[in-house]
């Protein structure tokens, strides 16, 4: 059984379609990349999964449970977290305060402390900067905070929206390494990325969105070898 099942999903903003008949399945422990040009509907798909935008038609199921009409907090309880594009940190709050926001539903202090320790092991740079404000961090460090915050709830599925946006090449590779590390924890990942080659290299499968519709899907190897993908997303 798939962990996440999206079928025939339609989303419109004020009557203007953003997603049409979109299907996406993710199995436990998989990494699936979503490719597409600006405005293709990638962020909308992730937002619709966690209930940040309503869908007009289709099925959304997670672990066999119906997700349609549910809210981001319920998705968090079920085991899905979204790490949004642009990181959306609280700039004047410290690293620790930002990361803590990801565990707001946890009342178990021991579990919270243990998870925080795990996050500092995964992101050692953050361990030295717990009291620094988020706004004083580099772009790469801010992305680490956003990912650590998303992982605090120990999700089964992490939705990562453009984690390498605006980062230096070295940091882009660091993010890729982290995605693999996160996946090695048994967490499935849906990765929206402009950096198609890197994303496909670290994922099992991929789908291509064009004007709100899935135009191609396949294993990452198939997509890397696909002529249209090479031309449009891999720079020829
Ligand atoms: P990008 O790579 O630029 O982030 P994307 O593939 O993530 O693009 P979306 O942000 O999902 O694309 O946008 C899909 C379409 O929906 C676009 O035409 C966009 O203008 C529109 N859209 C997105 N959010 C809204 C909104 N809140 N209100 C109205 N239209 C929106």
Automatic annotation (TrEMBL):
Q: What is the protein's species of origin? A: Ottowia thiooxydans
List the Pfam families hit by this protein, alphabetically: ABC_tran
Matching Gene3D superfamilies? P-loop containing nucleotide triphosphate hydrolases
Any idea where the ABC transporter domain is? 4-236
Keyword Transport assigned:
yes
- UniProt keyword list: Amino-acid transport, ATP-binding, Cell membrane, Membrane, Nucleotide-binding, Transport
| Protein's name according to its UniProt entry | Branched-chain amino acid transport system ATP-binding protein
Record's family? Belongs to the ABC transporter superfamily.
Asked if the record carries the keyword Nucleotide-binding, the reply is yes
């Amino acid at each position: 059984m798939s962990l996440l099942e999206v079928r025939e999903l339609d989303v419109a903003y004020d009557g203007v379609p953003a997603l049409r008949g979109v299907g996406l399945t993710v199995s436990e422990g998989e990494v699936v990349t979503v490719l597409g040009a600006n405005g293709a509907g990638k962020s909308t798909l992730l937002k619709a999964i966690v209930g940040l935008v309503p869908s007009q038609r289709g099925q959304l199921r997670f672990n066999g449970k119906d997700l349609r009409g549910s809210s981001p907090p319920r998705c968090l309880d079920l085991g899905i977290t979204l790490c949004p594009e642009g990181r959306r940190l609280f700039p004047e709050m410290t690293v620790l305060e930002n990361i803590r926001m990801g565990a707001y539903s946890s009342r178990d202090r021991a579990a919270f402390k243990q998870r925080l320790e795990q996050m500092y092991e995964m992101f050692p740079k953050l361990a030295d900067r717990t009291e620094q404000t988020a706004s004083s961090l580099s772009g790469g460090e801010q992305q680490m905070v956003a990912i650590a915050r998303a992982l605090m709830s120990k999700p089964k599925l992490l939705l990562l929206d453009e984690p390498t946006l605006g980062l230096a090449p070295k940091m882009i590779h660091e993010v890729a390494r982290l995605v693999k590390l996160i996946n090695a924890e048994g967490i499935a990942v849906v990765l929206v990325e402009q950096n198609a080659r890197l994303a496909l290299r670290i994922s099992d499968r991929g789908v291509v969105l064009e004007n709100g519709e899935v135009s191609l899907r396949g294993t990452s190897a198939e997509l890397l070898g696909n002529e249209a993908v090479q031309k449009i997303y891999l720079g020829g």
